[in-house]
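Quarterly update, task 2.4: aspartic acid-bound model.
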Amino acid sequence: MLKVTKFGGSSMADAGQYRKVKEIVLSDPARKVVVVSAAGKRYSADHKITDLLYLCHAHTQYGVDCSGVFNMITSRYLEVRDKLKLNVDLEGEFAELKARLDAKKVSQDELVSRGEYFSAKLIAAFLGYKFVDATEWVKFNLDGSVDKRATYEAFRRVAKGSGVVTPGFYGVMPNGAIKTFSRGGSDITGALAAAALNASVYENWTDVSGLLMADPRIVENPQTIPEVTYDELRELSYSGAQVLHEDTIFPVREKNIPLNIRNTNEPDHPGTIIQEKFLTSGDSERFITGITGKKNFSIVHLSKRGLSNEVGLLRRILSVYERHQISVVYVPNGIDNVSIVVETDELDRCRYALLADVQQDIRPDTLTVFDEIAVVAAVGRQMANRPGISGKIFAALGKSDINIRFITQSPDELNIIFGVENKNFNKAIQVLYNSFAK
Ligand code: ASP
């Protein structure tokens, strides 16, 4: 069994965090591969090393001396090294880097990649694992995509044997130049390492104990989601917060390797497992995996006698939105009426021009806009083929006096989505959570 572990910036922020990382890694002999981020913030007003490195590069671009920022960066690493009494020569590398930087011989990508590089050097020494540079195995194509075959092959070769630490966030172009992923890209490196070795799990260690069933700013102490599929995750992130970037997960998703989100500060918590499919439903009482939503939608409602009999009318209505480059979110409809649900911000770019076009092209009997609408989505693969869930949802909302403005459910039954007034948004989420969280 082999586990690939990735530790994010908050797990690498200072010597105390390094100690936790060491304990986690060495407590399980399967944790043979460690991917790390650059040091993150130690407290909220602190700086991330990666941000400081970007700043440093900007200084040199404008011919401003960056020694102050550079010293802030190096002192963070020296402090960790000295506190942990590690025997790693950083001074030599720092001096060489600074000299090349002053001579404008370091690209932005190379400079910012040093955050991960020095983290990996130090934690490798601390764990007694082998340091493998990302330039030895993460290979980009000329168009900036990852050359997966070459990358996987190279990693299998260099990661052979005992424990290995490798920096996240960057790799090499065919000409040998360092290239970084987009921000947060160490997650991708971890996923590539896991895919290359067909790991049994990809553990992504961060500072939260997995994904939560609802927004903690709305629901007090929401439960963690123990298991979630990628499809559910898409639904959950669509209408609410972005949980994981899709690029991040494609290598493990392709190979069906479970991704486990874990908390470095609470290592005994099992976190959340994300996977394509779960064979058994771990907890069959859990019909709803998560509840999410977003405020500030508008419903553009039109009615027209004979609408449902007129072939092509819906297309003509939608083409007005297309012409104005407004993305249509939901289209609940009746026989002779249809509602187009859009984000209010988008509508406001061209509200009156759009309405005038709808009026002219469609000639509706009525055309009304309702603003201040919030969308709430209850997401859960276990809702499929199980009667009574929507009944329970709407009964709970009714009992709490929450009026529902529209309802849609996808036929795959992965979600039930409904619109309420903005002012009822928090309450709707709380009512659902309290009815379904076990
Ligand atoms: N250090 C990089 C960033 O802050 C990459 C990462 O941490 O994943 O974006």
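Highlight for this quarter: Residues 8-9, 37-38, 48, 50, 115, 168-169, 183-187 surround aspartic acid (CB under 6 Å).
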